[in-house]
């Protein structure tokens, strides 16, 4: 509640929104946390760019839309950028899609420079202007990752917006992506005061670093798990922002991500050939067979199926997977990977398939329905991340009775507890050292347990399925933070 007793008004400013524009975990969070915040009596709304295809997907989903009473306008690079404001009720959450020329290119550019970074700055300014196009003004702007980090920077350092003022939260879903590019002509074209470009603000080795600016200028900073909140103050995965994060730790907190547990639900999932509960796994057996058939493998095999659904990025530890592939096959396991990303990983996985066509399957691409089949049809979910801010995939896999095998890092450490740890919650297998041997040590234990102790295996599956991955607890923590910010 605000001091006057009304609900706190929060605008989520996000460049991804599941299910309309999702690249990774940020899209999932933006698509599910607002619903939980509404339940917690926060008056939350969402603004997001209408990237190519987004409005078509909105229409196809049956969500009704209407035009706001006026466009939003932002002054940037010596011209006015206008966007149509399309209002939609997405499962109870009022959402504004900004439709403009600025959002007609690829969602995320391969090369960042002034021109490719501009849509993100324009988006943030249009988000700040949104209150003029609708009858609603946020108390707090809640921004996510470098792609909306310009907003807190504008509130602190922009010639016009710093006069207007406002509070902001900067949530870090992945500190490794920072929005770094040449300062010229950005500094002149953005409207930021010249002093916004200094070592203590957004300057970073002579470049602009939007995320650094967002961290320094936001009223509060959060990240997506308590362990990651500690790690990023010293950890190399921050690509040298740990000094700044440590300096700003007074306003930093780690709040664990939740899941949309209505969507990721083995009992109701319509994308599966069969559904199941933790009391009756017949449907899981059907999913397993369907997955084996899809992979072109023997449907009756008793070999454990290890699955991965992931962006193919260095962060996810695929070098360990590729280096360990001979041993994984020797263990008598099948491994199936769904993902797309860096060429060297795709090529390496293709080579593994060529070597072991009966044990390794690589589904290249981004495929939501197939991801559900992997989560449900697999026996183990492998996630040997080098770093992992929170990770949703391990939680999703547990919802489907697929036992996670993960590295003890970031949010994986906060959600997966080794079955051989006498004090843990016993829902998976974990390892610490970031190398192939470490990963194989955990996988060997998992494969051996699967093959020799089906009763214990079932207990581990049931434990994972009974974990509370709803947003309820975390939504309360966000609400508390909003309340503190308005005091
Ligand atoms: P990150 O945000 O680092 O990519 P997370 O584990 O937090 O990792 O979230 C990944 C989300 O993206 C999960 O919902 C996962 O199922 C989904 N995902 C990743 N790759 C694919 C893919 N190739 N096809 C379908 N879904 C995918």
Assign an overall shape: globular
Which sheet architecture does the biggest sheet show? 10 strands, mixed
- Beta percentage is 15-25%
User: How many strand elements?
Assistant: 19
Low-confidence stretches: none
Fold blueprint:
Layout: E1 9-13, H1 25-39, E2 43-49, H2 54-60, E3 65-67, E4 72-76, E5 79-90, E6 93-99, H3 114-129, E7 140-144, H4 150-157, H5 161-164, E8 167-172, E9 180-181, H6 186-190, E10 203-204, E11 207-209, H7 210-217, E12 220-223, H8 226-231, H9 242-247, E13 252-254, H10 282-295, E14 305-312, H11 318-323, H12 325-330, E15 334-341, H13 343-355, E16 360-364, H14 368-377, E17 380-383, H15 393-399, E18 403-407, H16 410-415, E19 429-431, H17 436-452, H18 454-465, H19 472-486
Parallel strand pairs: 1-2, 1-7, 2-6, 7-8, 8-12, 12-13, 14-15, 14-17, 15-16, 17-18, 18-19
Antiparallel strand pairs: 3-5, 4-5, 5-6, 9-11, 10-11
Helix pairs in contact: 4-7, 10-14, 15-18
């Amino acid at each position: 509640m605000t001091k006057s007793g009304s609900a706190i008004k929060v605008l989520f400013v996000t460049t991804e929104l599941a299910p309309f524009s999702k690249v990774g975990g940020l899209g999932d969070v933006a698509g599910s946390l607002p619903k939980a915040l509404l339940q917690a009596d926060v008056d939350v709304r969402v603004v997001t760019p209408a990237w190519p295809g987004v409005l078509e997907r909105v229409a196809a989903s049956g969500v009704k839309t209407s035009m706001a009473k006026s466009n939003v306008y932002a002054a940037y690079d010596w011209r006015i950028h206008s966007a149509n404001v399309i209002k939609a009720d997405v499962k109870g959450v009022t959402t504004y899609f900004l439709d403009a020329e600025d959002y007609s290119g690829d969602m995320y550019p391969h090369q960042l420079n002034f021109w490719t970074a501009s849509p993100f700055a324009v988006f943030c300014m249009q988000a700040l202007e949104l209150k003029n196009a609708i009858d609603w003004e946020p108390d707090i702007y809640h921004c996510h990752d470098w792609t909306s980090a310009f907003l807190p920077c504008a509130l602190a350092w922009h010639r016009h917006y710093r006069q207007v003022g406002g509070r902001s939260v900067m949530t870090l879903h992945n500190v490794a992506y920072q929005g770094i590019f040449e300062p010229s002509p950005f500094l002149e074209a953005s409207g930021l005061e010249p002093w916004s470009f200094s070592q203590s603000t957004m300057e970073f080795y002579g470049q602009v670093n939007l995320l650094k600016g967002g961290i320094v200028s936001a009223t509060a900073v959060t990240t997506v798990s308590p362990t990651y909140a500690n790690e990023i103050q010293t950890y190399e995965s921050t690509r040298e922002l740990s000094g700044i994060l440590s300096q700003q730790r007074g306003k930093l907190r780690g709040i664990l991500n939740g899941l949309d547990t209505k969507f990721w639900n083995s009992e109701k999932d319509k994308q599966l050939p069969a559904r199941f509960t933790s009391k009756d796994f017949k449907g899981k057996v059907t999913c397993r067979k369907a997955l084996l058939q899809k992979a072109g493998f023997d449907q009756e095999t008793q070999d454990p199926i290890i699955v991965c659904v992931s962006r193919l990025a260095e962060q996810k530890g695929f070098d360990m997977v590729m280096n360990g592939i001979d041993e994984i096959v020797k263990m008598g396991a099948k491994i199936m990977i769904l993902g797309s990303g860096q060429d060297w990983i795709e090529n390496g996985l293709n080579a593994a398939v060529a070597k072991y066509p009966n044990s390794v399957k690589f589904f290249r691409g981004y495929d939501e329905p197939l991801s559900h089949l992997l989560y449900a049809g697999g026996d183990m979910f492998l996630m040997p991340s080098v770093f992992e801010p929170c990770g949703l995939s391990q939680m999703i896999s547990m919802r489907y009775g697929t036992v996670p095998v993960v590295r003890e890092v970031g949010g994986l450490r906060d959600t997966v507890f080794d079955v051989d740890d006498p004090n843990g919650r016993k829902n998976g297998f974990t390892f610490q050292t970031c190398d192939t041997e470490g990963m194989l040590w955990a996988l060997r234990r998992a494969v051996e347990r699967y093959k020799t102790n089906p009763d214990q295996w079932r207990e581990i599956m049931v434990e994972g399925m009974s974990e509370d991955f709803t947003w309820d607890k975390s939504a309360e923590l966000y609400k508390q933070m909003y309340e503190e910010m308005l005091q």
